[in-house]
Amino acid sequence: MNSKQLFFLIIIPFFFSCNQKASNPIDELKSIGKRMKENNCIEYSYKIEKYRSYSGQAPTRNGKIYFEKNLEDSIIGMNFYNKQAPFVTFYGGDCHVTMRKADSTAHRAPLVHFKNGHGVSLPFLEMSYCAIQLFLSKPDIELQIDSLVKNDTIFNNQACTYYSFWANEKFIDTHKAFDKYNKKVELIINNNSLPLYYSQYKPIMRNKNLDYHFTEAFFSNYSLESKYSSSLFRMENIPEYYTWDMYKSVRKTLANGQAAPDWTLPQLDGDSITLSDLKGKYVLLDFWFIGCGACIKSIPTLNEIQNSYRKHNLEVIGISTDLKNPEKIKEYCAKRGMLYRNLFNGNSISKKYKINAAPIFYLIDKKGTIVYTQIGHDSKKLKENIAKQLNKTAPNRGS
């Protein structure tokens, strides 16, 4: 073997070794994250769709968002200005502000805020260019990603690369708090290292039943040339005539002492019922929606109240506010063990009862008058106030 042949034999393995390293999907994702992070400013349009196994398709979110690099921000390292009708939301490194032009109201809150273990997340942020570049550029990405698949594909008439993998939600979500579930991620990236499609599939085990969330985002109309004025990210940019806080209306309910608005709603089993036909008994209305965590926590309390006060002529009635599909609601009620009557099409009376949150409880007396209201799950508070209204000691069982 001459020296030229020996050189050829040495260089071929070296060439293939380099080539294999360059095409390693993990290294490709790292490289994509690095290139994404190099963009100082970026603007694009988005469409976000969410499907829940237990409630079906949620409303589609459409908007336009602008990100710019902010090296002083320790949370996401970027400012953003998001337009999603009827709201405008911005973040400049302090807090995120939401404005509603229609009624000149605004609200501000920390970008990352935790209460009772729950993080406040923004769908347009969690399913965004910013979120993707954050986790793709993390130094420990190769330790966090599992079952990585890469394929060439055509998406929106563009040559792209498809990646899918599993990762802990704490790794891929911007709020970096939850680490209970693993999510399957799908990414479609074009040749300019810009994401065109991003999805998350989260399986959720509940009492041996498998539920899931599937969220997908579509990106279009990219611009790397747009530059927003820095004034758009400052609090002083909000007109003085705007009213704070826009979400106070969510915490307002119908006043005690007024007549409960009448309604007729269909039952899951049987004919429709009318509220005015229930005069002569106490009625506890529970406005809820599928998937609401606090609503689920309230179910054992409502079952207990129904059982304890049935002989005192009190009836618990659940009103589903989000779905019109009785079979889906019926299946959910059975799975959750709701032992009281449930009605659907509650969205038709939501405005009458100022239902902007869940759960919301209204206790109505025998004359049809509202005597107690409560927003949110608080078992002890609800049972004590019902006992007070019925002049009976609250049950001693645990909450």
From TrEMBL:
<dbReference type="Pfam" id="PF00578">
    <property type="entry name" value="AhpC-TSA"/>
</dbReference>
<protein>
    <submittedName>
        <fullName>TlpA family protein disulfide reductase</fullName>
    </submittedName>
</protein>
<dbReference type="InterPro" id="IPR013766">
    <property type="entry name" value="Thioredoxin_domain"/>
</dbReference>
<feature type="domain" description="Thioredoxin">
    <location>
        <begin position="254"/>
        <end position="395"/>
    </location>
</feature>
<dbReference type="InterPro" id="IPR036249">
    <property type="entry name" value="Thioredoxin-like_sf"/>
</dbReference>
<dbReference type="InterPro" id="IPR050553">
    <property type="entry name" value="Thioredoxin_ResA/DsbE_sf"/>
</dbReference>
<dbReference type="InterPro" id="IPR000866">
    <property type="entry name" value="AhpC/TSA"/>
</dbReference>
